[in-house]
Amino acid sequence: MESDIDPSSTPHTNVNSWVEKLGPGLITGAADDDPSGIATYSQAGAAFGYDILWTILLTYPLMVAIQVISARIGRVSGHGLATNIRRHYPAWLLYGTVILLLVANTINIAADLSAMGAAVNLVIGGPTHVYTVGLAMLSLVLQVFVPYRNYVRVLKWLTLVLFAYVGVVFTVQIPWMTVAIRTVFPHLSWNGDYITTVVAVFGTTISPYLFFWQASQEVEELRARHGQRALKHAPSQGTSNLKRIKFDTWIGMGFSNLIAFFIVLATAATLHAHHITDIQTSSQAASALRPIAGEFAFLLFSIGIIGTGLLALPVLAGSAAYAMAGTFEWKNSLELEPKLAKRFYGIIVLATVIGLSLGFTSIDPIKALFWSAVINGVASVPIMMLVMKMASNPDIMGTFRISGTLRVVGWLATVVMAAAVVGMFCFL
């Protein structure tokens, strides 16, 4: 039953329980470990073993900072990132970033759908393309016809599938002391392949679609909860909501990076240890595990690919739709019926269908995945700069402008990503 009581004054209610506090941050973090990300982490672990684990630790606070800031912009202003960019920055900057986001997301959708279909084929055999189409249609039905309040519960439960990668680790022998030492004191290499892999991990972990999605989901949460208003206009609601955002994001990104750590660890302990160092897709990683780690590890890895794909597809398509809706002032909400937000849902369908279609062309999915990472990396830098500018803009944030440690770490994340992009182009 809904209540008008302020959640901050009722610590024992379900609304204020730690489970209920998990939402946009948890889903955003889990969606970061999509099949494309799994492929990147698998390749990193296979190629460089335990010496790449340090990147997961380093990206964690940087990822938390930029996602907390994105979420705060949505909750404080009551608008997503695209709407705020449109209102306060030049049109060419808005169109450029949104186009980059659309292209990268669509290619990412194509790669994820192909990986999901291939994973089903690995587990039960049969026609890969039929599975790919079926999974795309299932994702669209859930996004378009299931109201947000119900659908978000589905997404929360889907995050549990990521524990499959924790399970994989416990099916093989792990030298834990070596792992701990090499994570903190890795054997760094300055060759092109190693640097490129480090850049790929950063680009996979900190991606523009995650910024857009979490900011927009905070707006959805604002609309879904009775009596809640944008913090800019209701400062009294600030303390409890900003604490929730911080808790949700630290847990969500921690969950994301923990799973990424276990994926790298699993492939390092199995594939790298057996001199299998060239893994280019998530399904290829699952296949390679089978003769080394056994049938159970193979099944866990494959099921994880399917589940994370179902989790990531709505984030990829949805963030594209939110960006377009904010750009052109369309009605937008996953809570609205399709007939009330036709153009918003149309972008979700179009992005998914185009992504699905790319899987039936002669386009090399590995190259598509690579260029998606390149576009995401390039797009992330100006978008992060804009996010940081918006978070410090009193016209957008009112009295909730970011400061102190959050601002420092946010800018540090931006500088690190800029350095990663420069490094990426140096080794292209």
UniProtKB/TrEMBL annotation:
For membrane topology, the record states: Multi-pass membrane protein
Q: Tell me, which GO biological process terms does this entry list? A: iron ion transmembrane transport
What is the annotated signal peptide range for this record?
A: none
User: InterPro entries, alphabetically?
Assistant: NRAMP_fam (IPR001046)
Annotated membrane-spanning segments are: 52-71, 92-110, 130-148, 155-174, 194-213, 250-276, 296-323, 344-363, 369-387, 408-427
One annotated GO molecular function is: symporter activity
Q: Where in the cell is it found?
A: Membrane
> Which keywords accompany this UniProt record?
Membrane, Symport, Transmembrane, Transmembrane helix, Transport
Pfam families linked: Nramp
Instruction: Quote a single Gene Ontology cellular component term.
Output: plasma membrane
Annotated protein name in UniProt: Iron transporter
Query: Which organism encodes this protein?
Result: Paraburkholderia phytofirmans OLGA172
